[in-house]
# Entry
Amino acid sequence: MLKFNVLTLGCKVNSYESEALINYLIKKGWEFSSSDNVDVVIINTCTVTSMSDQKSRQVIRNARKKNPNAIICAMGCYTQLHSEEAINIADIVIGTSNRLQVYELVNDFIYNKEKKNIVEDIFLVKCFEELKVDDLKTHTRGFVKIQEGCENYCSYCAIPYSRGKIRSRNPLFVIDEINSLVEKGTKEIIISGINTGAYGRDLTDMNLAKLVSLIMENTNLYRLRISSIELMEITDELLNTLKKYEPRVAKHFHIPAQAGCDSVLERMNRKYRVKEYIGKVDKIRSMFDDVSITSDFLSGFVGETKEEFEEAKKFIKRVAYSDMHIFPYSRRKGTKADLMDGHLDPKVQKERTTELLTLSRELKEEYERKFIGKNLEVLVENVKNGFYRGYTSNYLDVYFKSDKNYINKLVNVTLTSIENGKIYAKEVGEK
# Structure
């Protein structure tokens, strides 16, 4: 029996794919272990920034160093774009398709000791690669992948080149997987994809709103959460569907903005403008009380002036996000932004990133303080430093103490304080 470990970098889709791969290999008779003493190490890589590429290479090399006798397999977005580079430091290289071939490739390597690079042209892949999570091995909440690929081609982003065209999963397979996870005790499912809101674009008479309805009507799922979704894909049909099933839908929308003024959005090739974004957020807030709006934001994009940066800050304050992921713009070869004039000094990028992070923390605490003294329901994920930790429907990260076993339980708590950026609560009781 081969013992294996999977190391995951990057996004929630990568986390899902790793989870599905773990399930598959266990069914094949392998033993999963998070230790360094394994026969096979699989690294699921990321390429969203140049730092992600660097981190991917580092993790591959460290896996070799920690376990020199193990077979090292690298897959994912970094290897899709840099397979020749990856094969120099790994034994087996797979891209963002054909992941399940790792089983045969490892067995072949055991006998032949020949390196294999099977990365194919991702734009020739036309069908969704069916992966399935039957049992959660690394998470309490379940991620279910419904969609692959992106065709937005934002000028700064390399992901469309590593993930290819939009491919949607058969809705019956989505329902089947959710039912399987619910039967085993999963209470929250996060449906995710590379461009989640584009789900169904390549299918007949199907979209994200219709999929949500199917999930609600054909499963006993307690709570559904939608992963990151682009603004232009939040349709009235989707909002009305979520409103219809409001008690079973998380009060949380993660809507990437990336910029806060029209001129930068245009250079980024984003498909909306500031007025549209604000209008959509206002509509969501009018429909869902206490809803959490979170976002991704790039600082220091090519050519960003002081005036544009000030506009961005005003935009962020106007939207009043409950949380943000803020990253300095990262230059990526092969993208349109790489060829633009006006790349900013890294020092300026760092200063602007720091300023936006400070603003984000202030808005986050302002949102969280609205709930001090209120009773909320927490889905407990784990125990950390003697505290139970879990998330509310509106994605508040809450800590509380109890002598009861509350792992994967829904617990009513009263939020009591915010200390050093953490929300603390006192137990009211299991729901």
In short: The longest helix spans residues 346-369. The chain is about 35% helix and 25% strand. The CA atoms of residues 2 and 30 lie 5 Å apart.
